[in-house]
User: Fold this.
Amino acid sequence: MSTPLPIVRTTQALRQQIKAWRRDGDLIALVPTMGALHEGHLDLVRLALRQSKRVVVSIFVNPTQFAPTEDLSRYPRDEAGDAEKLARTGCSLIWAPTPDIMYPSGFATRIIPAGVADGLETDTRPQFFGGVATVCCKLFSQVTPDIAVFGEKDYQQLCVVQQMVRDLDLPLGIVAAPTTREADGLAMSSRNAYLSPDQRTAAPALFRIMTELASQLKAGGSIHDVTTAARQQLNAAGFAKIDYVEIRNAKTLAPPIAGTDVPLRLLVAAWLGTTRLIDNITL
Ligand code: PAF
Assistant:
């Protein structure tokens, strides 16, 4: 049995603990999450622990990043299970504010990211990155970490947070962690819990088709041809709706300019039934 972790719910108690760690000269890392933790989240915590003595994991299902039609009310929640898992990783504290602590009555300020936030996710989820950037900015000023760890699984989100930190001179480093995958290649995500057994069997096709696309591109295929083929293969594998299959400049997320040699990223969002899966790989 591991020792239960402190779960802190007020900014005052959080600040007191952070102050004590600072007095001891401890480096502090933050891993922001919405809970329903899986091995991918725990890998973020393990990475954070390699770089800092203290790791704060925030658990907050952030209402401002969900559209009214999205899954806020049914988003999986399991604070007791999360606390159990985190206690075993060596995490120091769980920061679990309630919505009225995060957004007290009268709250009226919002960060509006652009640049890397434009397109891709924003085409279908226009509210999403405003909500993410605003809550991350608040988490950074509540926890005042030296670093914050974000998974590459949400690659555009990672780019948005990096840009916000640069643009607003926020005093912390952003550390990117590689995507953790199931043995069959499916990227770990809390939303995988929504998949039916049949959909779960079909889901690894996403990563397989992405990897095939990468090989075809390397072998000289054109971006248009390889992405068109990938869309057809995704449809055939049961992904009835595809939001995007895009190859982008890995830094700016702009469409690549022919003839230039920049690192590229493949980003995909597609639906299995009512579950939207996103994934990305470097090319
Ligand atoms: O990736 C997530 O879980 C969320 O978008 C984040 C970064 C915790 C902000 O709510």
In short: Strands lie at 7-8, 28-33, 54-59, 93-95, 147-151, 173-177, 241-249, 264-272, 275-282. Residues 24 and 85 are 26 Å apart (CA to CA). The chain has ten helices and nine strands.
